[in-house]
Design brief:
The protein is an alpha/beta fold and 382 residues long. The protein has two domains: 118 residues, 2-Layer Sandwich (Enolase-like, domain 1), CATH 3.30.390.10; 249 residues, Enolase-like C-terminal domain (TIM Barrel). α3 crosses α10. Bound molecules: calcium ion. Calcium ion binds next to loops.
């Protein structure tokens, strides 16, 4: 069989202002942005991928890395050599890469290559990376970003809205002061009722001492996991916290690649690993991170915060994450389903990603499993 050849790589920097400015513990969000990657081939198969824009990250940065460097490394090559291409992109960019935005850019290219492979073989990606451990995945709502008129009562109203939609799990934004967070977590447990899976995300706002105080004072609120209590540089702090609480300690959106995750996994610093498919390495690298996690019997629940393209691709990966360990009722990964305002999250894709009774089905169409609306790309790209 003659190989396919990559003929073009295009990156689009998409951004749109939100109607209501909100914040998390680090910054105010006035824009939602994404880098969308299109890869064309000589056989007419086109693939789509996404590089995540972390809160406030300008989409132009990953775009320029892709168009001025990664593009020349993959043009003329066979998209089926996806792992070879990943290693070559990583190796060539290593002096200024290894983590952060370089892996972020490589992730988007990798997802587009897998979309091509899936479309060429007429299979959804999850069927090409080992198959489906699950056909649907429990979704948890990421929301509770704070507008200028934030009150606990307003947040309780948001929680009731998620419950009415069918969510049985949601994640609070915390990191706004130890005493306030303690009161807030208790108030939100009261609003959610005892059976809802409640989580909290501090976006690295604390040191280990402050995080320990929150965990101890919130024991009764039974948080399922506490995400990014600390900065990602503080691996020792994470190890310390992990032994102090029955609440799982989670992080990973600021950790990159298998070598980045290696010391966290081997060092047993986290209960739950949260690599982002569109930022921590793409399908190729997250499969390897998942294998490391499995070898250490550590849970993996990917971080998801991008547009519909990233969401669809993340569902493909979620289908194929092996429970560690496997049993009749294993601990299952969940879909982080961002409910905060995003002007083009759903419009960007054809093919519904819908939640029913708290679960989202894995798309079964080829590649990432959804089509892409290019009119929407043109409307929001600069
Ligand atoms: Ca987070």
């Amino acid at each position: 069989m003659q190989g396919m050849k990559i003929t073009d790589v295009t990156a689009y920097a998409l951004k749109a202002p939100v109607e209501t400015e909100t914040c998390f513990s680090q910054a105010w969000i006035s824009l939602r942005s994404s880098v969308i990657i299109r890869i064309d081939t000589d056989e007419g198969v086109t693939g789509w991928g996404e590089s995540l824009c972390h809160g406030g990250q300008p989409p132009e940065m990953a775009k320029v890395i892709i168009t001025s460097w990664l593009k020349e490394l993959v043009i003329g090559r066979d998209p089926f050599d996806v792992e070879v291409l990943w290693e070559e992109m990583y190796n060539r960019t290593r002096p200024v890469g290894q983590a952060g935005i370089m892996i972020n850019a490589i992730s988007g290219v990798d997802i587009a290559l897998w979309d091509i492979i899936g479309k060429a073989l007429r299979q959804p990606i999850h069927r090409l990376i080992g198959g489906a451990f699950r056909k649907e995945v429990k979704a948890y709502a990421t929301g509770f970003y704070r507008s200028r008129d934030f009150t606990f009562e307003k947040a309780a109203g948001e929680a009731r809205g998620y419950l009415a939609q069918g969510f049985r799990a949601f994640k609070l934004k915390v990191g706004f002061g130890v005493e306030e967070d303690i009161a807030y977590i208790h108030a939100m447990r009261e609003a959610a009722g005892p059976d809802i899976c409640l989580m909290a995300d501090a976006n690295s706002a604390y040191n280990a001492a402050a995080a320990r105080r929150i965990l101890y004072e919130c024991r009764d609120a039974k948080l399922h996991f506490f995400e990014e209590p600390l900065a990602p540089e503080d691996i020792e702090g994470y190890k310390e916290l992990k032994t102090l609480s029955s609440t799982y300690i989670a992080a990973g959106e600021q950790i990159f690649g298998k070598t980045g995750f290696r010391r966290w996994i081997a060092g047993r610093a986290l209960d739950i690993l949260q690599p982002d498919l569109c930022s921590s390495g793409g399908i190729t690298e997250l499969k390897k991170i998942a294998a490391l996690a499995q070898a250490y019997n550590t849970m993996l629940i990917p971080h998801v915060w991008g547009s519909g393209i990233g969401l669809a691709a993340s569902l493909q990966f979620l289908a194929a994450i092996p429970p560690a360990p496997l049993c009749l009722r294993p601990l299952q990964p969940m879909l982080e389903y961002d409910q905060s305002e995003h002007p083009f999250r759903q419009d960007l894709i054809f093919g519904a990603i819908r939640m029913t009774d708290g679960f989202v089905k894995i798309p079964e169409e080829p590649g990432i499993g959804v089509g892409v609306n290019e009119d929407v790309i043109r409307r929001f790209s600069s």
